[in-house]
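User: Fold this one for me? It's UvrABC system protein C.
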Amino acid sequence: MSHTLNEKLSKVSSAPGVYLMKDPEGKVIYVGKARNLKRRLASYFNKPAQADLKTSVLVKKIASFETIITGTEQEALLLESNLIKRHRPRYNVILKDDKRYPSLRLDIKHPYPNLTVVRKTENDGAMYFGPFTSSSAVWRTFKIINKTFRLRKCKTRVFKNRSRPCLNYQIGTCLGPCCFDVDKTVYNEMLKEVILFLKGRTPELIQKIKKEMMAAAEAQEYENAAVLRDKMFALENILEKQVAVTTDFKDRDILGIARSPEFTLMTILFIRGGYLLGTRHFSFTETLSTDAEMVSAFIRQYYEKQSHFVPKEIFIPFPIEDVALTEAWLKNIKGEKVSILQPRRGEKTRLIQMAIQNAENELKNKISSAAAESDMLARLQKALKMTRLPNRIECFDNSNISGTNPVAGMVVFEKGKPDKTSYRKYNIRTVTKPDDYAYMAEVMKRRYGKGKASEPWPDLLMLDGGKGQLNIAVSVLRELNIEGEFEVIGIAKKDEKNGETEDKIYKPGRANPVNMGKKDLLFLLQRIRDEAHRYAISFHRRRRSQTAVISVLDTVPGIGKKRKQTLLQHFGSIQNIRTATPEEISRLPGMNRNLAEAVKEKLKTKS
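Assistant: Here's what I get for UvrABC system protein C.
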């Protein structure tokens, strides 16, 4: 440790607080909290050898540190969380899985609630169930409920305006509350059954339906008994496919962890009503955190995003330092007590072992996949005669229709995987006539023309196009004085008329396409090209749609910026405004009947 760090460490307080590690450039690379700042920081610098080689290497990157003293550990916990969000330090545990997993939403405030699939949960008084680990799982559950229970299927907006029952009522899968006076007691009873099912209480629900079936049979209500029998059989069939893992039927999340020199894998098992419903895996690469610190950080970050799905118990594989503080934080989110436990014997330790085994298995798969990806990138480097591995590949594509609303998109693949946080969209600003070459020149200057601010450079730049686009790219890089900073290639579609059987890869200064060898290398480049194409087209469609909506509403007398915004925020799209009634539109703030009819008339003529 340097003399400066040693001197600074001697002055650190023993109070609770937060510390920020910085690299030689002053960038925050790690944020941590401690009950005793002096002791915690000393554990990094004063040990003769770190617990492992990787941690030792990471500690050597620390050039300085800062400390912030807090009044309590609780304050340190909150401050640490806020600083991690602000700085996103490289060596902290940060959940980069920002994907919104699907959930089921039950709007219990409505007189006749219905079930919908959503990806965003809100504090709106509705009940949420999930999250489901895949869209296929949530839609499968949604289909089972729609088939087994006779909840309404139509959307709330359609429900208000429906005058005739839909097909679901005709085939007996909906009670038709949109058109008939359905007894709310009957509907609410059915709603309770759906909630029991979604909470994993299937055995309890089956017993309830069985009693009702027997009672209906004794009362000689044979048709009703037959309906209940079919429902019971359907639920029993579902129950057979579920795996029972506990006998106390509690809701729990089980955490497991596995580590290797390259990765750390966190696995969470979802147990609801004693049944294992699914798993999720989260991987991390470089971190200065210990296993216990990782588990603690993971709990705080994961349940902050999944506040609707906090169970009553969370099992962890080893004790964490701030368990009481974390339990208090979870209680504040859930509204009731949440226990973080480390089972030491019995069937509960088996659950921990199951989570660890799943984590270890997923870690093996990840290491194997990473090795395969590394081998593929090495072969791609050799095929393209590159001086370094193409770890970062950037690809551009343009999109327009006859020169209208021209846009471009850039996608980024890191180590063979899409890095969607680095994707970029570009509205073409300076080119007024249809010209793909000019579009590409403008976009490349905007991406690479800012000097050091443009970094990181890609290892490989790929353009969707043949030699023409490639020549434009080379001339722009030469003009920006960065030619040679990275490799450039063009990918052109095969010409079937000339007997070509596969797409072609071109390099600057070479007349013939590159021989890519094994097809998996070409497939990788095609996948990147197709992703850039999809990204650019979706951006173009969205921009064109927005332009169309704005132009139509702008032509309605009396509809200014504020009213236009109100309409779009409430209805979501021009199509929803078109299908809404004048009464619905006139009820919005700032609207009246005359304006509503003017909007309807204008949209009718523009349909």
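One thing worth pointing out: The chain has five domains: 3-87, 103-242, 252-364, 392-532, 555-605.
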